[in-house]
Amino acid sequence: MTRRVAIVGVGISKFGELWEKNLRDITLEAGMYAIFDSQVSGKDIDAVCIGNMSAGRFTGQEHLGALAVDMGGLGHIPSYSVEAACASGGAAVRQAYMSILSGEHKVMLVLGCEKMSDVSQTEAMNTIGVASDWEWEGLFGATFPALYAFMARRHMHEYGTTEEQLAKVAVKNHANAVHNPWAQFQKAVSLDTVMTSGLLADPIRVLHSSPVSDGAAGLVMCSEDIAKKFTDTPVYIEASTQASDTLALHDRRDICTMDAVVISARDALKEIGATVDDIDVFELHDSFTISEITLTEDIGLCKKGEGGKILDEGLTQIGGKYPVNTSGGLKARGHPIGATGVAQVVELVLQLRGDAEKRQVDGAEKAMAVNIGGTGATSIVHVLGR
Amino acid sequence: MYSIVGNHCTTCGTYYFPPRPVCPECRRKGHLEEHKFKGLGKVHTFAIVRQAPDDFKRQVPYIIAQVELDEGARLTAQIVNCDIDAVEIGMRVRACFRKITEFGPEGIIVYGYKFEPTMKVTGHK
Ligand SMILES: [Zn+2]
Description:
The structure holds two protein chains of two kinds.
Chain A: E1 5-12, H1 23-38, E2 47-51, H2 55-58, H3 64-71, E3 79-82, H4 88-101, E4 107-115, H5 121-129, H6 144-159, H7 163-177, H8 191-195, E5 199-202, E6 204-205, E7 214-223, H9 227-230, E8 235-244, H10 259-271, E9 281-284, H11 289-298, H12 307-312, H13 329-333, H14 337-353, E10 366-373, E11 378-385
Parallel strand pairs in A: 2-3, 2-4, 9-10
Antiparallel strand pairs in A: 1-7, 1-8, 4-7, 5-6, 8-11, 10-11
Chain B: E1 5-9, E2 15-16, E3 32-36, E4 40-49, E5 62-69, E6 74-79, E7 92-103, E8 108-117, H1 118-122
Antiparallel strand pairs in B: 1-2, 1-3, 4-5, 4-7, 5-6, 7-8
Bound molecules: zinc ion (ZN).
Zinc ion (ZN) binds near residues 9, 14, 25 and 30 of chain B.
């Protein structure tokens, strides 16, 4: 049996505060782009999978699978909605991957979407907060930034990671986003601006945090044997893995390590018989600057505690040994929760096709996306190859 | 959640809080007994919350911490009777009974545990 699934089309909406558009508009936009990009016709698509965290709370609309099929004019094909907090998009990609590998579906449209700006900042914060352990963390006043501040503070305490290193993640990712036309912030920020931005939960500042965003992303995926029918440049999913950890951060073995990421990344590399050095470009879930530092350690780009150091050395910049978040990441491309995991894959497909323009990593052949949910209770890893 | 009652697995010796239905180490072989924690521990990590949801807005800025209990489990709670500049990793704390928040539009009052520095309040070490 083939172990690969092809991605034959990608689409993405502009990310940002899209006041003039609703959830349907942006999701349809991303889906249509993906379909046009792939040259599939509507009747080739035999199922839809959509990742979303909380459209019910953000926009008052659920049942997004049927909505997507309806708006896309795709007839009576089955649809699946997938939720895994901030990893909902990655979960949708993985769901489609498994459906195609199983032989049940041949060509699928995968979507991820979230419209977060229609509610107040406080309501958005409450809605995001339920991705942690509501009963034992949120109820006691632990906000989402506070939970990431727990990790940052402990990382600083154990490994000497500095506030400046946290800030450098934001500076790097904003610099990358300047060249990404779909990014929410196509704007560089200085170290000083990040380090003096307002505090959300010390030591986490506004510019250490991904923004509230609207956006959607889409993929057309199919089985390997028919991929060339739709495109000359298919990109293949070589590995798709997932792992879980405790919902509450206080129950973790070590709050500076996301075991679910360690396990899912290791499994993905093992599946294709590769090491992390074989990967040319990475999209790592930087919902807060500390999570990019932690993830670089957890997938093995450096030893535990050295995530700040490799940043100082420029290893994770475009042109460095391990380019991370060429798209701008969640930090600067934006983080419409359910769309993020799909958007990571969109960026990596562009990189592997050589279509990433000014943010292109030369000769990229293999890429890895790590999409996490909550504070790392879900981790979904995809390795893509040409 | 008024008193810190979790459980203790007599098979592997691990203490759990909040209580769990199954010991993740021993699974079906585990034997869980109810355990009331002494409520003494130390700050494992912390944050100063400056932007909070509505239910907590009036308390801002406040200290939220992960406390490591002496028996071994960790939990998330506010630290009170302590300046936001005075809290540090490793600081000894003890549980105290407090109002946590008024919850939702009906204003249901939630009580539970917060922690306070031991030295200052009781002379405990
Ligand atoms: Zn046990």
